[in-house]
Amino acid sequence: MERVIIDTDPGIDDAMAIFLAASAPDRISIEALITVNGNTDIDNATQNAFTILTICEREDIPVYKGRSKPLKREVRMCESSHGDDGLGNVKVNKGKIVLQKETAEEYMVRAARENKGILTLMPIGPLTNIAGAVLRDENFAKNIKRIVLMGGAEHCGNMSPTAEFNFWHDPEAAKIVFEAGFEEIIMVGLDVTRKAFMTPAMRELLYQINTPISRFIHQITRIYVDSYWNKLKNLGCELCDVLVSAFLIDESVLKIKEAFVEIETDGICCGTSVVYSVDIWTGKKKNCYVAYDLDVKTFFGLFFEKQFPAFKETAEALIEHEYRV
Ligand code: RIB
Ligand code: CA
């Protein structure tokens, strides 16, 4: 059982990651959601957090509002594949906003101090809030069990050929986090999320499963699929953040390796995570683990079984077909 604080910029794949995390209470106890500016502005992100919790009937989970802009730079606007509202612009009953009084950073610092070495941070957006907590409390990194994050990449990028959005959006924050001395950081980057590609047939199965969550995922991924077609002529969509939830449920979905990662904060490669595999670059001291391979059939099997158990066999047959070699 992992006690997890999810730091999120919902966000279509964020929503799917939260649904999956909430579907496995035997493996993940969601302590709180904290929101951050990233895919959308902080007010949308915070409203979306409540909407997501309402749809998965987990309004018991507290929500803390985080930072509205990166640590040291202005928001660099970019075309968002998540829609103007961050959740695909679909019409949905918005969740009632019942904000906690503490800010995200105040909450994280207090919770970590009160639960030394017990809490896991699950950032699936820019690392602004976590860097803010590191700056606020010199013991924060020591008080946290580990970080399992979606961000970065060793061999690719989505905001440039080398930079991934969560690190690109707030590179100074990412640099602070990787230099803060956390006991364990697991970086789930684009190298593996590229392989977690939901096909049109899988998306259609979500429609036919016809639960509030499956139908909502089908709706919000419309704009996401359009973005992958318009940009890359790929049919389907990449489930980035969802891999972090899957890893926390079953670590066998990913292969990870020891690495030293440093973050570029300037120039044409700003936001790039430079990954030194320590078995090659022997002079570098490990500061994290980087995911380098995905068991895609196990991942999608878990995605469907945990959330839609009645359709386990149907999903397994479809996954076998879609990912036959
Ligand atoms: O690069 C992918 C990341 O950027 C994901 O977290 C997605 O939600 C966006 O925030
Ligand atoms: Ca995200």
Task: Characterise the protein shown here.
There is one protein chain. Helix content is 40%, strand content 18%. The strands form two sheets. The chain has a nine-stranded mixed beta sheet, with helices on both faces. Strands 7-8 form a two-stranded antiparallel sheet. The protein has a single domain (2-199, 237-295), classed as Ribonucleoside hydrolase-like (Inosine-uridine Nucleoside N-ribohydrolase, Chain A, Alpha-Beta Complex). It is an alpha/beta fold and 325 residues long. The protein is globular, with a radius of gyration of 18 Å. The longest helix has 21 residues, at 212-232. Helix 3 crosses helix 4 (128-136). Strand 2, helix 2 (42-55) and strand 3 (63-65) form a beta-alpha-beta unit. The chain starts with a strand and ends with a helix. The chain is built from 13 helices and eleven strands. Calcium ion (CA) binds at residues 9, 11, 13-14, 38-39, 124-125, 241.
Could you write a compact summary of the structure shown?
The protein has 325 residues and is an alpha/beta fold. The chain has helices at residues 12-22, 42-55, 104-114, 128-136, 140-143, 165-169, 171-179, 190-193, 200-209, 212-232, 242-249, 296-307, 312-322; strands spanning 2-8, 28-35, 63-65, 119-123, 146-150, 185-188, 197-198, 237-238, 254-263, 273-277, 288-294.
Write the SSE topology.
Elements (H helix, E strand, L loop, with lengths): L1 E7 L3 H11 L5 E8 L6 H14 L7 E3 L38 H11 L4 E5 L4 H9 L3 H4 L2 E5 L14 H5 L1 H9 L5 E4 L1 H4 L3 E2 L1 H10 L2 H21 L4 E2 L3 H8 L4 E10 L9 E5 L10 E7 L1 H12 L4 H11 L3
Parallel strand pairs: 1-2, 1-4, 2-3, 4-5, 5-6, 6-11
Antiparallel strand pairs: 7-8, 9-10, 9-11
Helix pairs in contact: 1-10, 1-11, 3-4, 4-7, 9-10, 12-13
The structure holds alpha-D-ribofuranose and calcium ion.
The site of calcium ion has 9 residues, from helix 1.
